[in-house]
Amino acid sequence: MLNIVSTPIGNLDDLSIRQAKTLAASDIILAEDTRSAQTLLNGIKERFPDLQITDNRLPPVWSYYKEKEFQKLPEIIKLLKEEKNISLISEAGTPLVSDPGYLLVKSCIQRNLPITVIPGPSAITTALIYSGFNPQEHMFLGFFPKKESQILPDMVFVFYESPLRIKETLRCIDLACRQAGTSKFNVEIVICREMTKKFEEIIRGPIDELIKRNYKGEITVVIK
Predict the structure, then answer these.
(1) What's residue 149's pLDDT?
(2) Domain membership of residue 183 as a residue range
(3) pLDDT number for residue 152
(4) Is 143 a domain residue?
(5) Alpha helices in the chain (DSSP H)
(6) Where residue 190 sits, what CATH number does that domain have?
(7) Is residue 185 part of a domain?
(8) Position 110 in a domain
(9) Quick one: the chain helix, strand, coil %, rounded to 5?
(10) Angle, helix 34-47 to helix 17-24, in steps of 10 degrees
(11) Theoretical Cys-Cys bridge with 37: which of 31, 60, 188, 206, CB 3.0 to 4.6 Å?
(12) Residue 205, class by beta-carbon neighbours within 10 Å (0-12 exposed, 13-18 middle, 19+ buried)?
């Protein structure tokens, strides 16, 4: 199992018990910065004594940053196929968001290897609320492109939707794509339902297949 584990953006008191349990039970932790990872593990020991973590029981931390991601991918995939419990963390916040891990997650999806996401603090939403601006509609650009030609090269859109409206929304997206002359095969949609709950479901597929399904619960839609 690959665990994508969010971590505090600064204050270690923001650690959740689920994050702590997941990291403590890992066979290997992949970390963008191994020093920050050790600080995090020490924070878990101090804040969650019931987990009975000792220095001898700490999982090994492997260095995993963007320049090494492709190189280390085969070994990590091999370990996941052997059913090792591997957790990925970034220096702070949620992995993959302007941090390493995209290639690994994409490779796991292509190979049907199990993935789970343990959510947590986000600098994006924290800053958005601090701003005092209306957060109802916003766009996140990651690290701002260094060159003008790189702006909006491959945009991903995320929005919430009601299970009562999701089919109509998908039909509207399908119609808009056809009117724009965009093939449905060039539009990728992922529907995330009941995230972190008992009946969590991540649904991928062509839009005409997604429209045929019935949906319940809280829904977040991601479009590329």
Answers:
(1) 56
(2) 156-223
(3) 55
(4) no
(5) 17-24, 34-47, 66-81, 102-110, 123-131, 166-179, 207-212
(6) 3.30.950.10
(7) yes
(8) yes
(9) 40, 20, 40
(10) 120
(11) 31
(12) middle
Distance CA 111, CA 130 (A): 40
Q: What are phi and psi for residue 64, nearest 5 degrees?
A: -145, 95
Given the structure tokens 């790189």, which residue do they identify? 150
Task: Report how far residue 19's alpha carbon sits from residue 192's, in angstroms, rounded to the nearest whole number.
Answer: 20
Name residue 192's beta-bridge partners. 202, 220
Q: What does the alpha-carbon distance between residue 200 and residue 119 come to, in Å, rounded to a whole number?
A: 13
Domain co-membership, 109 together with 17: yes
Paired residues of 30 in beta bridges: 62, 88
Segment 136-148 shows an average pLDDT of: 70
Is 132 inside any structural domain? no
Range among 105-119, 145-159, 188-202 with highest mean pLDDT value: 105-119
Does 194 share its domain with 116? no
Q: Into how many domains does the chain fold?
A: 2
**Percentage of residues in the chain having pLDDT higher than 70:** 91
Over residues 197-208, mean pLDDT = 91
